[in-house]
Amino acid sequence: MRATGNKAVKGFREGSLGGAGIGAGVGLILLGFALQASTNLPQTNTAGPGQIQAYRWPDPIDDDAAIDAHKTVLRAEVSIDAYTTVKFFEQPKSELIYESSTSIERNGAVVVKFNVGRMIKHQTLRLSHTALLKKGDIGMLVCEYEGGAVGAREGFAILRFSPNKLEWHVLPLTDNGKVVVYAEEPDRAQIWSALSDDAGAGAAPMYYATQDCRWQASGYACKSPRRQTGQFSPGDIDDPGIDIRP
């Protein structure tokens, strides 16, 4: 089932935020955020712990108005602590190009900005889900961006944060895919992507390949794709496209 162009959350899983200084084996506490349904205002956190946040896409009428006005729209806000807020923006350029960006504020002042679409190398993707995982004042915010008529293309960005550092990193693009993050191994991630012969083929079961990734000093290093045995329903894989495991 989809809501206004993007996937609806089927169930609750853990989400993530991982920051510099987090070592493997450190257990993190999941915090979830739900956003109000209105697409006319920035969607803000209203849900309790243990939820992956789904974001409703703007109404096409609002997109058209933003295109005509050359306007940058504040899509959503996530507070990662009492002082720090992550703001998600889009500047719709056409029906397919959205120019996604993010700014991070501490005590109301912008400390860093990221052009997420440029980093992912795919400006047709829109924010779909986030999940926050933290222990004390260190953690990571995992963000899923998706696009296409049925949301078949997914990109993932991870904000790793600590009191002294904010780092925004991306993972390889996927088709009908997801990112798996491990609560006890916050430096570890795995991405799933439908194989090219099946990608975008609809709801029929597909063959998938996975890539194991691990945080290094300056980003995520991912191994070569490895084909999985059997087929998987894309709805079970990418709805939502964030999967947090122990």
Number of strands: 18
Please give the alpha-carbon distance between the first and last residues: 27 Å
Query: How many distinct folded domains?
Result: 1
Specify the number of helices.
Answer: 3
Helix/strand order, N-terminal first: EEEEHEEEEHEEEEEEEEEHE
**What gyration radius follows from the Cα positions, in whole Å?**
17 Å
- Measured by DSSP, the beta-strand proportion falls in over 45%
Molecular structure report:
The chain is mostly beta strands. It has one domain (2-245). It contains three helices and 18 strands. It has helices at 60-69, 116-120, 234-238; strands at 2-3, 6-7, 29-31, 53-54, 73-79, 84-90, 100-106, 109-114, 126-135, 138-147, 153-162, 165-175, 178-182, 185-194, 206-215, 220-222, 226-232, 242-245. Strands 3, 4, 9, 10, 11 and 12 form a six-stranded antiparallel β-sheet that branches. Strands 13, 14, 15, 16, 17 and 18 form a six-stranded mixed β-sheet that branches. Strands 5-6-7-8 form a four-stranded antiparallel β-sheet. A hairpin with a 2-residue loop joins strand 9 (126-135) and strand 10 (138-147). It is globular and about 50 Å long. It starts with a strand and ends with a strand. The relative contact order is 0.19. The model is unreliable at 1-40 (pLDDT under 50).
